[in-house]
Each structure stands twice: as structure tokens, then as C-alpha cells.
Amino acid sequence: PRPEVETPEEQASRFARERAEDAAWLRANPGEKYPPLRYNRRGVEDRRRLDEWEASLPKCIGNVLKELNRTRYAHDAHGNLVRRIEPDGTTWLYGYDAANRLIEAKRYAKPPEADELARREPVAGGGTRFVDGSVRPLLEVSFAYDAFGRRTKKKVMRPDGGIERTFFTWDGDVLLMEERFGLPVKHEHVYRGLEFRRAQIVCEEPQDVYSLPVAQRMHTLERHHEWQAASLYLHEPGSFVPLARLDEKLVEPAFLATGTDGRFVQVAARTRHGTYFYQNDHLGTPQEMVDESGKVVWLARYKAWGGVKRAPYGNVDPVGADNRIRFQGQYHDEETGLAYNRHRYYDAQAGRFISKDPIGLAGGVNVYQYADNPTGWIDPLGLAKRGPKTGGCGPHNEMIAAWGKDVKAAGGDVIAGGGQQEALVKTPGGFKSGRRPDIIYTDADGNTVYGNVGKVRADGVTPVTREQQAMDDLRTKTQGSDAPDDVQFRAYNCCPCKGK
């Protein structure tokens, strides 16, 4: 059992008593500035007993991870990861909004004490006051989301004063584009009138340090956040599998040039364009990126749960083509080491999500689990894992493939799924904005049918909540040509899998 420790009320009473004793000592010793140092015997003893008790507990209680590979984790009452302490002392602190979405991540060189962080404290008479922290984070990352819960902005504040902002555009649940803006670090500037521009002096002989400047001065047009790059992503139809990426990067910003005649000439910014193609594995995870000429510009190999083992000859593009796409539906944040997985964040080092499943137990008993087997399962939305739909052993996959064979045997035509690639069906206003039926087919009479394969409740008939919601969306939220004639369901609980 948890050891008995001092309650907050008992601690407050003890502190008040000690303050009174200190005041009495100072009155009795007017020549002294400070009372004798107190040894917080009760607090230290309680902390020691709690540490011993926590060390005796299993590393994972109630699916909440406490320690892995000498990295320690702490969670809040909602099950969200709030602190991660790495073996070298590097500490990450995480903050969440009311919807349990990650909104900030801060990195410190060592675990900060509570009174070293910025905080709000109660004041006499009610209310609170803000107290600035004495310890600054080495790196600070914040996030913003739209009304649908999709991440739309990432802001990175670096120790040198540089600020980077990335804005994301979405096509439903699929990432469409990102644009990056940067605030340069502090420079030496030349003040001209009411303007504040970075100046560059052009010399007659650039190689001669004593050369005089020519009668020309170039001024970089400096904004608060200068556009740096943009990337447009193309995916396989109806899936999260990346096909290509179209890049545009800033090479030289726009500037104004003045000649000896005093006229201003604006020189436009120069950008570099690039088209890159993804080479994916059987799960749709990028293994390589090649440019238009077929040259490999990015190459990586993965650990089992998605951690990247960068190849020594990868990233050979001198401009620096990088890839932030990982498992299907994941966008890797280099700053935090986490991957944004649409509805929550995934930690590839731990092989699990950092917060609970938003759909609760409908996504599985382990609410932090990514998948049973990361080499054969995916979770593009961060909600519910699923196996590959184009083969593989397992009751779910076998039932889908068997359904496709039944359709063909009855004279129907399989359009998507049923052992083939799935297709996305838009369901605006539903539990989700889009659904991927396990099978879409037309029967012998020409009727369009959407079919789902899933688990049922203990009665052996009623679909679980997640499956029922999917069918409700397909029945009532589809529009126009996407509206089916029928929606059907088959249970796979009793589907045998050979060899098992």
C-alpha cells in the first residue's frame, strides 16, 4: 500500500508554525539576520518513503509507462504525458488544452524545480499573480489546432532568438501542404529613417579586406517572419500513403538596390524548386526519396516501432532534402522527437502514444498502444489500429478477402477493398469526416454496397461502438454519388485463421 505521508493541510500548518518560531527567534536575537537553517526532516522522510514505494512498483501500471530504457515518464490525471526525463538529465515538459491536445513542449538541460518555472500563485484576498520562472527552456515548441482538431501551426523558439513557424493545410484528414516562415537571429543593423533593415556592403574587390565599397548599398527587406519554404504532398488516392512532394525553397530574399543616381531598384527573391518521389515499403512507410533524375536525396532505415536509423549515405542533396513523413498518417517533429498522428502524438522511442485514445476502449484495451504488430498494422488517425487490407493472415483480413470472393462468385464487381486497396468515402458531419469501408462493391443487380468487417459484442450480433459509428456515417452522412444503396456488416470474431 501507498505509505502515509503528510497531507497538504498538515504541511501548511507545519509551515505556519515554523514561520512563527522563526519570527520569535528573530525577535529574541535582534542582531541576527536569519534564523537557524531548518532541516525539513518530515518532508525529506516522506519523500524517501514515497521514492522507495514507487521504485518497488511495476514499470507500467494501468498501461501508464513509468520507465523505459532509463528514461522516466510522468502522466497527469487524464493520462497525458507531462514529463520525460532522459538518462542524461534532459527533461521535457508537456502541456495540453482542455481537449487533451498537446499545445506546448519545453526542453530543459536538467529537471527544473517547481519554484523555478513560470507559474501562477494565489494572493491574499483572492485571485492569482504571475511569477516568472528563473530557469529558461533550451527549446520551446507550441502548437495550434483548428475546429476539427487538425494541427495548423507549429512554433519553435530557439535559444539564439530564432523563431520558426510552420503552417499546415489539410485535405480532410490528409496533410496537403506546409509552409515555413523564419525570424532570423539578431544581426547588426543599419538604421535608416523610420525603417529597420539589415544592410550589406558590396566592395569593389570582395577578396581585399581593405577595399572601399562601391556606390551601391543593398538592403534586405526584413519582415517579422520571412517566408522560407513550402512543400506540397501528393498521396495515393483514398489513402495516407505518400507518392511525391513538391518543394519550393528560398535561396535569396528580395532586396532594394540603390545606384549613384539615387534610384531604387527592387530585386525579386530567388527560389529553388524540387520534385521528390517516395519509395515506400509494404505499409506505406517511406524508405527513400529520389529527385527527378532518380538520385537518392533521403534514405533511412527503421527500428521496429518507427524510430529512424539514418543511413550514413542518406541526405546526399547539398540543399538538404529531408523527409518528415513516417508511418502512415504521421508527421515527425524533429524538435520534439514526436510524430503528429492526427488525433494524438506518437513516441517512436517508446513505441506508444503519449496520451490516451480519444475514443476510449473502442480502440483497444491498451489506450496507449499503437498496434499489435508495427510491421503489419497501421493507425493513420491515431484512433484505432488496423491490419493491411491487401492480404496477410488474420481473421479480419481473411474475412475481408473472403467477402470479396463471395461478391465475385455471385456475379458482382469489387470496386475497392475486399483484398484490394481501400477507397476513402467522405462523410461530412459524421463521427469522422471520412470513412474507408473494408469493401465497396456492386452486386449482380447493380446496387452499390459498402461493407465493414469488425468485432461484435458479447451477444455475437451487435457491432461494437466504433463499428456502429462507422456504419451510421456511411448510411446517413454520404452525399451525391458517394451515397450507397446498402451498408452491410460482417463479424470476424469467429472467422478461423489457418494454422492458429
From TrEMBL:
Protein name per UniProt: RHS protein conserved region domain-containing protein
InterPro entries named among the record's database cross-references: RHS (IPR001826), Rhs_assc_core (IPR022385), RHS_repeat (IPR031325), T6SS_VgrG/RHS (IPR050708), YD (IPR006530)
Pfam families named among the record's database cross-references: RHS, RHS_repeat
Domain RHS protein conserved region: from-to ranges: 276-308
Classification via Gene3D superfamilies: RHS repeat-associated core
Species the sequence originates in: Paraburkholderia antibiotica
